[in-house]
Design goal:
The chain is built from 7 helices and 10 strands. The chain is α/β, with parallel strands linked by helices. The chain has a single domain, classed as 5'-nuclease (Rossmann fold). A 6-stranded parallel β-sheet has the order 4-3-1-7-8-9, sandwiched between helices. A two-stranded antiparallel sheet has the order 2-10. It has a two-stranded antiparallel sheet with strand order 5-6. The longest helix has 12 residues, at 18-29. Mean pLDDT is 83; it is low at 60-85.
Length: 196
């Protein structure tokens, strides 16, 4: 299904903020995203150049008490399934099987226990680097920190910019800044293992 301003010859790059999507699906629906369906919907029969997914690796992270980081606390910080039984590795493999190129960063732990796990700058730099090879940049994130990137891609480079996010948790200003907003909640079969 193509929308106004879309045509089959457009070269498309998709940049997916996995942590943002993971937490939105989990918190809103207690489910997870069907990535192949999401990609198919976003691509809309256009020419795919690259799909890049940004993830945080936490296996091997050790807490201050020397024990490996596991379970809900680790999941909350990284946006990945719990370690053990290959959970994180299997999750990353499923993303690759869906056609995504993974950009992986280790979870940063600062003195005092503060943890940081985001890819905002890396995702923005990659989108700008790739822009000359693309007609359309699709950012899959609801994070309002990407507004300057959207504006630069649109007005500085003349690219069509689409944003896909969960409508209920996405930044209203980000939705306004882009050329086209895709509410992920409206895509059929997008949530897997949905629980009430």
């Amino acid at each position: 299904m193509q929308r106004i301003g879309q045509h089959r010859e457009q070269r498309v790059g998709i940049f997916i903020d996995i942590q943002n999507l993971y937490h939105s699906a989990k918190n809103l629906y207690r489910g997870r995203v069907n990535y192949p369906e999401l990609i198919r919907h976003l691509l809309a029969d256009r020419k795919l150049i690259r799909i890049t997914a940004y993830v945080v690796k936490s296996e091997g992270i050790v807490r201050d008490d020397g024990q490996p980081e596991r379970g809900p606390a680790r999941e909350r910080e990284t946006g990945s399934p719990p370690t053990g039984g290959g959970g994180e590795a299997a999750f990353f493999e499923a993303l690759q099987d869906a056609g995504m190129e993974l950009r992986v960063k280790d979870l940063q732990i600062y003195p005092g226990g503060m943890k940081k796990a985001d890819w905002d700058v890396g995702m923005a730099v990659d989108a700008i680097r790739m822009a000359n090879s693309l007609d359309v940049v699709i950012l899959v994130t609801g994070d309002g920190d990407f507004i300057p990137l959207v504006e630069y891609l649109k007005w500085g480079l003349g690219k069509q910019v689409e944003v896909a996010a969960f409508g209920r948790s996405g930044s209203a200003k980000l939705k306004e800044a882009c050329d086209y907003f895709v509410n992920i909640e409206n895509i059929p079969k997008i949530i897997i293992n949905k629980r009430k």
